[in-house]
Specification:
Blueprint: H1 2-29, H2 45-55, H3 66-82, H4 100-121, H5 125-156, H6 164-168, H7 178-191, H8 203-206, H9 216-242, H10 248-267, H11 273-301
Helix pairs in contact: 1-9, 1-10, 2-9, 3-4, 3-9, 4-5, 5-7, 5-11, 7-9, 9-10
Length: 302
């Protein structure tokens, strides 16, 4: 229990300062300073933002479902938290299980329902359109995402994530599958609805997308859930491709993945939605399927 509590506290602090890092990186990309007034160099800005958001008066749409508006952001936040105890920080997990890869599949699939309900319960056209875009995008790329995870489990002969560490003691998988890594990064960006695939929050079209009717603490919970998913993807990428996050090279690798999410947002314009869907169904999914069939045939024949 103490390990779980310490992990969650560290995670919330990392999310807070990850938002500050994003604002700093985007500001320097855009030739400006970013947050620099609160405390020393703006280091306390995340806590100032959190106090401001959670002190705001909650406003409810007159035609929305008030009960779901209160409940669903917390559910989304809890789903993001539940996935962390099954992630191995070394060769052991906090909640170790022989099938924690499959548990991760199940919990991450439930995130689709939380976004669907967030967009529906406000009874707003903008939020409903944003949630429909997000669901179509997440379901499409979840297929590719899970098939790539299945490919890793075929390589490792185990559904237990902590066993991946022993495989990588002999070889880092990253050096042999660089093209697959690029597809994985592309899929991760689409899975967490990050730029250039942030169609669920298309400000120029949908005001703010599926969370347009949420303010104050409810918006903060949705916001925390999104950034927690980004950090989780960085951890997963490091675990699947290097086996551990405890070595210096693995920590550098994980930080590089986390920074790439922010750098890509400040560099690339928003993609076209139809091209995004075609890229998955016509290019990435056939390639992933072919790789899985080849890998399984090779292992089966040997």
């Amino acid at each position: 229990m103490i390990n779980i509590i310490l992990t969650l506290i560290s995670l919330l602090l990392s999310v807070a300062f990850y938002t500050l890092l994003e604002r700093k990186i985007l500001s320097y990309i855009q030739m400006r300073k970013g947050p620099n007034k609160v405390s020393i160099m703006g280091i306390m800005q995340p806590f100032s933002d959190a106090i401001k958001l959670f002190n705001k008066t909650l406003t409810m749409p007159s035609v929305g479902n008030s009960l779901l508006i209160f409940i669903i952001p917390s559910v989304s936040f809890m789903l993001s938290l539940i996935m962390w105890p099954i992630i191995p920080f070394s060769q052991f997990c906090i909640l170790d299980n022989s099938y924690n890869s499959l548990i991760f599949f199940v919990i991450s699939s439930l995130m689709v329902y939380s976004i669907l309900t967030i967009g529906w319960c406000a009874n707003s056209k903008f939020s409903q359109l944003g949630s429909m875009r997000a669901i179509a995008q997440m379901i499409s790329y979840e297929i590719n995402f899970f098939m790539m995870l299945l490919m890793f489990t075929i390589f490792f002969h185990s559904y237990k994530m902590s066993q991946f560490y022993f495989f990588h003691m002999k070889m880092w998988l990253f050096f042999g599958i660089l093209p697959i890594f690029m597809m994985w990064l592309f899929t991760c960006l689409a899975e967490v609805n990050r730029s250039p695939f942030d169609f669920a929050e298309g400000e120029s079209e949908l005001v703010s997308g599926f969370n347009v009717e949420f303010a104050g603490g409810l918006f903060a919970l949705i916001f925390l859930s999104e950034y927690m998913s980004m950090i989780l993807m960085s951890f997963l990428t490091t675990i699947f491709l290097t086996g551990s996050i405890m070595t210096l090279l693995s920590i550098f690798y994980m930080n590089s993945i986390a920074l790439s999410f922010l750098w890509i947002r400040g560099t690339f314009p928003r993609f076209r939605y139809d091209l995004l869907m075609k890229t998955n169904w016509k290019i990435m999914l056939p390639i992933t399927t072919l790789i899985i069939i080849t890998a399984y045939s090779f292992i089966f024949l040997n």
